[in-house]
Amino acid sequence: MSLEEREARQPVLLLTPAITAVALLLVVPLGFILVYSFWLRTATGADQAGFFLDNWREALFDPFYRDILLNTLKIAAVTTIVCALTGYPAAYFIARSRGNKALLLLLLMLPFWISYIIRTMSWINILGASGAVNSGLMALGLISEPLPMLYNEATVVLGLVHFLLPFMVLNVFVSLDGIDATLEDAACSLGATRWRSFLEVTLPLSLPGLAAGGLLCFVLAAGTYITPIVLGGPSDAMFANLVFEAIITQLDWPMGSALSLMLLAVLGALVLLYNHFLGMAQLMKGLS
Amino acid sequence: MDNTKRYERLRERYMNGGIDRRSFLGLIGAAGLAYGVQTPFARHALAATEQVRFDGWGGVVSEAFRKHAFDPYTKASGIKVVDGTFGGGDEFLSRVKASQPGEYNIAHLSGVFDYARYHGLGLSSTLNEKNIPNLANVIPKLVDVFRKVTDGSLSCVPYDYGTTGLAYNRKYISDDEMKEKGVKILLDERFKGKIAGWSDWRTRIWYASLQTGQDPNGATDMDAIWDALRAHRDLLLKYWSSGAELMSLLAEEEIYVTEAWSGRVHALQQQGHDIGYMDPPNGFGWQECLFVIKGSPMEPCEELLNFMLAKETSIAVAEGQSYPPALDPNKVELGKIIPTLPAFDPTGTLDGLTFADPAYWNGNEQKWSKAFSRIQKGY
C-alpha cells in the first residue's frame, strides 16, 4: 500500500470507533424511539405494534403539550439570561485575574464533584420552612413565621442556575481569555473610558462565547426534569416531566417516544439556528 | 458424578482395553470442547443463583428489610440479596418492562391491582408452595385475593398491610378538628400552601371520591372528582413522590396535613414528631406482597420468601418498617409491639379495611392516570 493510500485511509480508521459509537448509542436508539412513537399502548400496558398517528396527533395538536412546551422554553430562557448576567462578570474576573486562574477554575468545577440531585436538594435545607434563611431571619427577629420560599417557578430557575452557571462561566471565560487585553488599553489610549472600551471592544469579541454558553444552558435547562420535581410546585412541570410520566408512570412508551422526539426536534432546531449564524466551532472550544 | 470421576472411569476403560486409543482421545477432546463452550455461560448461571435482587420502597422500609431479613438470610444461606428501591409501582413496572428476564427478581409490590397488572403483562411466575411452608401462617384472606388473579397459583406471598390515611401536625390541627372535618380538611382554604398530596393518581382519585361522598371503588360522578382534584391542587404546596419526601415535608413543618402511609407516620411519631394519624371512613387500605418476577431463579427466591415469612423475621421487619405483618394473629403470637402499629387488625379478618378493587382501578388506569397528570399540572 502506498503512502498516499495509507494517509487517505487514516481519517476513516481514526473516525470509525467514534462513528460506530454514535451509530450504536444514538442513531440506532433514536430509530427505535421513532418506530415506538407510531405504536400504541393498550389498556393492559402492553404495546401494540403498527403504524398509528394517534400519538403524534395528540402531541402536536393538544394545547396541553403546546402550553407546557412554551412554559419549558420560557423557564429555559429565563435561566439562560440569569446565567449570562451572573456568569459573565465571574468569567471576566477569572480571565483578567493574574496568577490564580487555575485555582479559580478549579473552584468553579468543584460543584461537579457533588451529585446534581444532592446539589438540587440542598436548596430545601437553605430555603425551607426550617432552613437556614428562615431560621436566620427568625433568630434575628425580622420575621415571626417562616416565609414560603420553596416549590415555585423561581426556585426551579434557581436550581437550574445553580446547575448550569459553571457551563456559562467556562464558555465565556474561554472566549475572554482569547481576547488580547491590550486591545482595551488601546481603546483607552484613544480616549474611551474603561466602560466604553468594554462595551465597544471586549463585549462584542466575547459574544460567541456568551452565545455558546447560552445555547448549552438553554438546551440543558429545557431538557431537565429533576429540578421541577424537587423544587417545583404543582404547576411547575416542564416538558421532560411529561416524557418521564408517559414512560414511567403511565407506561405509555409510544406516547413518551413521540413527546421526546418532539422536544428533540425543537432543541435540534435551535442548535441548527445557532450553527447557521455562529457556527459550532465556538461551542466545541468551550467544551474542550 | 463429577468430571474428575468421569475422566478416571474413561481412563480405566482405555487402560483395560475397553476402548481404543483414538476413541479415548476423541472423547477427551469432545469433553474439553464442551467444557470450554459451557464454562463462560455456566459461570454466569452459577453467579445468578448466588444472589437475588430485591426491590422495595426505600427509606425506613428498606432499612428494616436489610437489617432484619436480608443480612440474616445471607448469613444463613450464603446467597447475597442485592436491594434496590423505587418510588412507586408504576415506575418499577416500567423498569421491569425494559429489563432482561432475570434482571429483577423479587419486588415489594403494593395492592392486588399491581399484582394483576404484572400478571396481565406476563411477568408473573408460579411459586412452588411446598418450598414455602411458612405461607400457612399468613392471613387466608390476603392469600386468596392473589390466587383469584392467577387462577389458583401464586406469584407472590402477602407480607404486610397498612393504610393511607390522614397525617396532620398537632401543633396546628387538633384531633377534634380532624375528626370533625375528616377528608375535607385537604380542601380547607385555611391551610392553603400547607397541604400536600401523594402524586399517585389512584390515591388522589380515592380521596377525591371520599371528598365528594362517593364509593372509592365505584365512583359515578367523575366530573365532581376532577373538580375536587383541582380544588386540592390549588391549595397544595406540592405533590410528594416518595416516603422519604413525605416524612421530610411533615418533619420540617413545610406542610401541616396530607394523606400519608401509616407506617411512615408511625416512624415519625417514634422519632418524637407530634404528628397525628387518622384513618377516615373508607380510608385507603392496602396489602403488600413479595412478588417473584418471571425469569427469576425460583428456588433461592422461594427460600428467601420462606425465610422472610418466618415468625421471627416477619415480626422484626414489621416492627422495623411499622407495618403489621401478613401473619395471622390467630395462628402466630405477634408480641407486644405489633398490636400497637397503625392499621393492625387483631381479628385477622381485615374486615375494617377497604381495599382497592383491581378490576375497577386497572380498568380505568389508562384514562384516569392521564387525566390526573393534566390536572396535576394546572389543567
From TrEMBL, chain A:
Organism classification, top ranks?
Bacteria, Pseudomonadati, Pseudomonadota, Alphaproteobacteria, Hyphomicrobiales
Q: Which family does it belong to?
A: Belongs to the binding-protein-dependent transport system permease family. CysTW subfamily.
Q: Name one GO cellular component term.
A: plasma membrane
Q: Name one GO biological process term.
A: transmembrane transport
The membrane topology noted for this protein in its Swiss-Prot or TrEMBL record is: Multi-pass membrane protein
Query: By its UniProt entry, which InterPro entries does this protein fall under?
Result: MetI-like, MetI-like_sf
Q: Which UniProt keywords apply?
A: Cell membrane, Membrane, Transmembrane, Transmembrane helix, Transport
Listed name of the protein: ABC transporter permease
State if Transmembrane is listed as a keyword: yes
The record's subcellular location field reads: Cell membrane
Where is the ABC transmembrane type-1 domain positioned along the sequence?
69-274
TM annotation in the entry: 12-39, 75-95, 102-118, 155-174, 205-225, 259-278
Automatic annotation (TrEMBL), chain B:
Cross-referenced SUPFAM superfamilies, in alphabetical order?
A: Periplasmic binding protein-like II
Which PANTHER family does the entry mention?
A: SPERMIDINE/PUTRESCINE-BINDING PERIPLASMIC PROTEIN (PTHR30222), SPERMIDINE_PUTRESCINE-BINDING PERIPLASMIC PROTEIN (PTHR30222:SF17)
- The UniProt record lists the keyword Cell membrane: no
What is the name attached to this protein's record?
A: Extracellular solute-binding protein
Query: What InterPro entries does the database record attribute to this sequence?
Result: SBP, TAT_signal
What organism does the record attribute this protein to? Stappia taiwanensis
Keywords attached to this entry: Periplasm, Signal
Which Pfam families is this protein grouped with?
Answer: SBP_bac_8 (PF13416)
